[in-house]
Amino acid sequence: MDIKKAIKEMTLEEKASLCSGRDFWHTKAVKSRKIPEFEVSDGPHGLRRQTLKEDHTGSSESIKAVCFPAACATASSFDRNLLNKLGKALGIQCQSEGVGTILGPAVNIKRSPLCGRNFEYFSEDPLVASELSSALIKGVQSKNVGTSIKHFLANNQETRRLTMDEIIDERALREIYLASFEGAVKNAKPWTVMCSYNKVNGVHMSENRRFLTGVLRDEWGFDGVVISDWGAVNDRVAGLIAGLDLEMPGSYGINDREIVAAVRDGRISEAVLNRTVERILKLIDRFESHRSKQTKWDKDADHELAGKIEEESAVLLKNDGILPLDKNDAIAVIGKYAKTPRFQGGGSSHINSSRVTSFWDAAKGKGHEFYFAPGFDDKKDEIDRILITKAVSAAKKSDVALIFAGLPDSYESEGYDRSHMRLPECQNVLIEEVLKIQPNVVVVLTNGAPVEMPWKEDVRGIFEMYLGGQNVGSAEYNLLFGKVNPCGKLAETFPLKMEDNPSFLNFPGANDSVHYKEGIFVGYRYYDKKKMEVNFPFGHGLSYTTYKYSNLKVSKRKLKAGESLEVSVDVSNIGRMAGKEIVELYVAPRSSTVSRPVRELKGFEKVNLRAGETKTVSFVLDKRSFAWYDPSLKDWYVEPGDYDIEAAASSRDIRLTKKINIDAPKVFRKRFDENSTFSDFMGDERLEALIKPVFDSYRHVNDKTVTERSEAISQEMVDATFGPTPLRAVLGFGDGTIDHEKLKEITDKANELFGYSSAVCPNTEQ
Ligand code: BGC
Q1: Ligand 1 contact via 103 beta carbon (within 6 Å)
Q2: Which residue in 101, 326, 477, 731 has its CB near the most CB atoms, within 10 A?
Q3: Could you tell me which of 418, 249, 395 has the C-alpha nearest to residue 330?
Q4: Residue 194 Cα, ligand 1 centroid: separation in angstroms?
Q5: How confident is the model at residue 36 (pLDDT cuts 50, 70, 90)?
Q6: Does the CB atom of residue 157 touch ligand 1 within 6 A?
Q7: Looking at ligand 1, which residue's alpha carbon is closest to its atom 3?
């Protein structure tokens, strides 16, 4: 397509018409210029392609497709290759259906376990979210199909998501909420970004120039199309100026006419419209020029792949040795989810599954002695004594009770948040009743986000399957009977109770605004800082084998701020079963001038080990691995000092530690003046020389104080009060030799040497 020519030839109306959808899933064709329509489809863990033009609610059926495990599950795989494979499968499905862009992945941070859409999101940690979504994006786009990373920015709750103002401080934005998008946008270059419904710090994201253009395009180099979330447009003209390209689903031409009027009356220049049209045409061209209409989609192969992905994602939370199960045991299979599993969440990601394999289906014909009892009805949370009695009697005649529990459909969906973190009471009562007569209880959970577990100490095993896709049953069977070794780890913390969560006092907000008062202390960053007990920590996951960590090495013990550090560690499988270990690498600053998390995840690798095998796992830590975002510098800042490099099996299972030291130049955050303190001048020889006269004038008096009252006041005490004292204090407390003029002379010279702008430089490169 000759895009420049097309733009030149199109009428104003034609150009404006390209900026919004014809219906829910297509842009408008411009027949006179041979510009075809372009189709998008949900996403993110399967294809929800709807052939009816209007449906958005899930009320009319989408085509039959394969429902893969949701992001809550795949995040726990910590496996980039696996996510890439999933992406490729989605890309092939899109090609064969003529879908130009799949609406996902969704990388919002799990601020609260209650967010109704957490099942679609990856993690409470931005590195996990951005790394895994990058792998997925690369997989999809390798098939010449676009992705739409969403929901930019801070759609971390569903309550009043269209009108909520998310009030977030700059450090939290940079270190947590933007960071989950940043890595993926920079590394994987998604074709499109979907802006969220909500406001951030007072401005609707659909017209938020600071983020849509300033951060996304100018800072991160994004060159694709920004699409509105469905119905997120507030002011179309402001949106266009801010960098929002495509309005979805469209507004029956109303906003297209607004754009035309705005160009005509000079509110926007035609160049702004042309810029957007060019981006949209490039997107269409990207897909059309690599369209492979012959692509075949093998639903059965993808069904198998869905099962494999779930096997690599499920997390064995607890095992006192009861697992894997013995094939010869009589087993009470309790819970309706054993036969009719819950494997996906509600809302726009809901897939019309091609087929479903339950645990029961997977176990069929394999010669087990099973006694089934549904145990509860998940349509309502009512304790059904008859169902419980039947479950108890099944448990009584068995060696083991396997209870398939989880959150019902109505608990987790797009559009609303959960009101508490508990399982339905009828399921908790069922588990307690079975425990009364059967000590060998294993709970298998299907849910998209953490739940409280009042029975945790009493059961012998817990598997977290998350929402495991349409072939969850095969994975459950293979994992429970040890045909496959569990290897997932939690990408989020399971707190003991909801009240422990850092967002608890400020979720979901009131009066259409919510303050993220916990700042950067999200998930483990908070629980670790507060030394709180949790149910299961971030990064936790068990295996049927045992891994030993040894030989942690760093490429240097001393480095300069901005330099990279190579780290390696040996991991051995010292058990009897092959398995995969996720090695986590944390950076823990020993001190800081600001409040920082105890440790933060800065690398992870999944490594496949035969029994008895050892492999070396390597990482590179770059400048960002050590930095915090300093709003006064408007930049990432690496502070001098000691840092621990930790190789870990979970955030609370640190296996090996090496201390390194970083040397960094002193950074000046503001210009020097009479209110600069003595400590602002310390640490650099030239500055210390400059204030020597002030120091002398002041010290003269203070030395006397120390000598005269040596018992009561130590030199350390004087230094501690002296350091934060502004220079101007010398006028009154010095010996009278320093006046305003002298102070100005000194601070002018200091500014010449180290003025704010020049001092920032060492920390500006990324
Ligand atoms: C959701 C998006 C989804 C879109 C299209 C919106 O309500 O927030 O995630 O992609 O609808 O279905």
Answers
A1: yes
A2: 101
A3: 395
A4: 9
A5: very high
A6: no
A7: 348
- Rounded distance from Cα 313 to ligand 1 centre (Å): 25
pLDDT at 760 over 60: no
Q: How far is CA 159 from the centre of its chain?
A: 19
120 lines ligand 1 (CB under 6 A): no
What residue owns the CA closest to ligand 1's atom 9? 348
At 292 the pLDDT is 85
Q: Return the H-helix or E-strand segment holding 703.
A: helix 692-708
Residues 78-120 pLDDT 10s: 999 999 999 999 999 999 999 999 999 999 999 999 999 999 9
Is 716 exposed, middle or buried (CB count within 10 Å of its CB: 0-12, 13-18, 19+)? Answer: exposed
- Neighbour tally for 148: CB within 10 Å: 29
What is d(CA 85, CA 125) in angstroms, rounded to the nearest whole number? 22
**Candidates 153, 414, 416: which one to mutate for ligand 1, based on the most atoms within 8 Å of Cβ?**
414
Neighbours of 210 (CB within 10 A): 14
CA–CA dist 275, 245 (Å, integer): 9
Do residues 559 and 581 make contact, with C-beta atoms less than 8 angstroms apart? no
Instruction: Label residue 90 exposed, middle or buried (CB < 10 Å: 0-12, 13-18, 19+).
Output: buried
- The model carries a pTM of 0.94
Band the pLDDT of 709: cuts 50, 70, 90.
low
pLDDT > 90: percent of the chain: 88
Distance 27 CA to ligand 1 centre (A): 16
- List the one residue out of 602, 46, 737 whose CA is nearest residue 348: 46
Q: What angle do CA 224, 228, 234 make, to 5 degrees?
A: 135
Kindly report the length of the chain: 766
Question: Does the beta carbon of 263 lie inside 6 Å of ligand 1?
Answer: no
Does the Cβ of 229 fall within 6 Å of ligand 1?
Answer: yes
SS3 200: strand
Name residue 370's beta-bridge partners. 331
- Report the candidate in 180, 306, 248, 193 with the shortest Cα–Cα distance to residue 18: 248
8 Å CB contact between 353 and 68: no
pLDDT by residue (tens digit) across 582-628? 999 999 999 999 999 999 999 999 999 999 999 999 999 999 999 99
Annotated catalytic residues are: 229
The DSSP 8-state label assigned to residue 424 in this structure reads: P
Confidence of residue 754 (pLDDT cuts 50, 70, 90): confident
Ligand 1 atom at minimal distance to the Cα of residue 196: 8
Type of residue found at 611: A
